[in-house]
Design brief:
This protein is mainly beta. The protein has no helices and 42 strands.
């Protein structure tokens, strides 16, 4: 009987949780853990985690992380936990308290650097705004108290529930108390984020989005431009793009009621439509970070309202949102993020934990603090409603140094599993026929693997997994050959019912 071939050569769609599992897109996946698609369409294992500080320096979660750059290029790492602001030594990871008087909202801080003044400014919705120059912490008397601070056109802007305060030009200690910019609406919305991007100042409220028009000298005003609201203030981050060799802040990504959106101050685009079922609740404690090195957005949240313990990653972020692919990363408890993006840094990604006072470097190495993790993907279903299929051969194309495992799922009824064929005993790669000269190449072409057993069904999908390779694991394509089972054998094998 002739074999029917199926070939998957692109996984650019990422996970698709919407609709029926039999009807997802050609390049979509039913599941994908600890991997992400690159622009070419193949999948790569995520990087690992290492400890940035040797041990927890507090029992409180790391509520904020920030990288402050001085004019001389020096980068200083700041972290907050409880009511304390810390400076972290990049070599030893040792934390030194700068102040322990941040008040009740201390662990969630908003930072902005004013480069010409060589200072970082800090707000936390509890105490007066602070400035720090790397040595001296100063309380700015008379400054408004707000949840977030931003620097735009040589002025400081402070976000309050229904207004935005701003400083005089080129000064940080004089604010126009009578000239507050109104963002009140008739929907009862409260302010969530304040970001400068795409040459404008953008405010996100629970009830919609606003942008600043005009100038303080001529009479500026915030005007609403969308009813899409933000429900998690720390989910918002600036998306950057490269233009003529320069990094340009192009827009803002944030979590709304029904998913993740990007806005450029004019338009708003939903970029998480394929994972909409995730957002059954309002994850108000979610935190997000744009990671320029991979063009990814990391969203950490908890579905039960506790400490953040779930991490989903959108890859290939652009302002149009047309090619974003979502996958899940396991083994993370992230409550804050920062990226080292200064001239003397290499784009490192750090996360503060939600369970205690530890900070970790992400996307580094191939283990999570010395422990292997599993990278896996589950393909869409193949088959027909009135014909039973049995997989006979699979031929995956991948790079790996550890065994690769497969599992055939006949529409969640019967499973076939085993290791991908190897020329060594027990599925361990050695120095035999096809190892030599191929592991360092562009890809590894495995031998056809026989899948010959009694299991079959009307639809089938394939799960591929690898434990121990991490970022070394790359999965390029999968060819599957199946045969139709004759109904004469129905009395011999237990068949699946029609889905």
């Amino acid at each position: 009987m002739a074999l029917k071939p199926e070939i998957l050569s692109s996984f650019s769609g990422g996970i698709n949780l919407t609709g029926q599992p039999l009807n997802i897109g050609e390049n979509d996946l039913l599941d994908c853990k600890n991997m992400y698609p690159v622009a070419a369409g193949y999948l790569v294992g995520r990087g690992g985690q290492t400890n940035y500080n040797p041990s927890a320096f507090t029992v409180d979660p790391i509520g904020s992380l920030y990288r402050f750059y001085k004019q001389n290029g020096q980068g200083i790492t700041l972290a907050s936990a409880g009511t304390t602001l810390y400076q972290i030594n990049d070599t030893t990871g040792i934390a030194t308290a700068i102040t322990s008087a941040l008040g009740g909202q201390g662990r969630r801080l908003s930072f902005v650097t004013w480069s010409s003044k060589n200072k970082v400014y800090i707000q936390n919705n509890t105490v007066a705004m602070l400035s720090w120059d790397g040595t001296t912490l100063t309380a700015i008397g008379g400054s408004p108290i707000g949840s977030q601070v931003e620097m735009y056109l040589q002025r400081l802007y402070v976000l309050q529930p229904n207004v935005v305060a701003f400083s005089d030009l080129n000064v940080d200690n004089v604010f126009q108390g009578a000239a507050l910019l109104n963002i009140a609406d008739n929907k009862g919305g409260t302010a969530q984020f304040l970001k400068a991007a795409n040459n404008m100042l953008i405010v996100g409220k629970t009830s919609g989005l606003w942008r600043l028009q005009g100038s303080p000298l001529l009479g500026n005003v915030f005007v609403p431009y969308s009813d899409v609201g933000c429900i998690a203030p720390l989910s918002a981050d600036v998306v950057t793009m490269m233009s003529n060799g320069q990094v340009i802040p192009a827009g803002v990504v944030f979590l709304g009621r029904d998913g993740v959106y990007v806005t450029d101050g004019n338009t708003v685009t939903l970029i998480s439509s394929k994972i909409t079922p995730l957002f059954t609740g309002y994850f108000k404690g979610a935190v997000g970070k744009y990671y320029p090195k991979r063009r990814q957005y990391l969203l950490s949240f908890d579905t039960a309202g506790g400490a953040n313990d779930t991490l989903w990653v959108g890859t290939n972020i652009d302002m149009a949102g047309s090619q974003v692919a979502w996958t899940e990363y396991t083994g993370f408890n992230c409550d804050s993020f920062t990226v080292f993006d200064g001239e003397n840094d290499s784009g490192e990604l750090l996360a503060g934990l939600s369970v205690d006072g530890r900070i970790r470097k992400l996307d580094t190495g191939v283990q999570d603090v010395g422990v292997d993790y599993t990278c896996s993907l589950t393909t869409r279903y193949f088959g027909e409603p009135f014909k039973n299929q049995q997989v006979r051969w699979i031929k995956p194309v991948f790079d790996a140094t550890k065994p690769v495992h497969y599992q055939i799922d006949y529409f969640q009824k019967q499973l076939s599993s085993g290791n991908v064929s190897s020329d060594a005993l027990l599925g361990t790669w050695d120095v035999g026929t096809w190892d030599v000269g191929t592991w360092g190449g562009a890809s590894f072409y495995s031998a056809r693997t026989s899948v010959l057993d009694y299991k079959y069904g009307r639809y089938y999908s394939t799960n591929i997994s690898n434990t121990g390779d991490g970022a070394r694991f790359k999965f390029f394509s999968l060819a599957i050959e199946s045969r139709t089972k004759d109904r004469r054998f129905h009395d011999v094998f237990s068949l699946n019912t029609s889905p």
